[in-house]
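Thread title: Can someone regenerate the structure for this chain?

I was given the following input by a collaborator and told the matching structure tokens would be attached. They weren't. Posting the sequence so someone can regenerate them.
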Amino acid sequence: ASRSEDRVAALAPAAAPAPTFDLEGIARRAAGGTSGLTAIIGGAGQLFLVRVGDLVTGRYRVSAISPGTVELQDLQGGPPLTLTLR
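Best answer:
Regenerated them for you:
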């Protein structure tokens, strides 16, 4: 590798480490003819009430919610996260 390539690699930002999230609960909503699941996720100093398609910290999109788990897609290209109720 050339010196300029080494400098560019050194200047490239490293991917931020994935924050730690906890699945605090899942609520089922069946009002007004609509039903769905809302996940309650704690992490990054916040509490998130999210449904499928919502963003968490701007980095993750909720891709699926089931009665015991939530799938988060990393929008920065990292591996997906699976959160499980404890």
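The chain has a mean pLDDT of 85.
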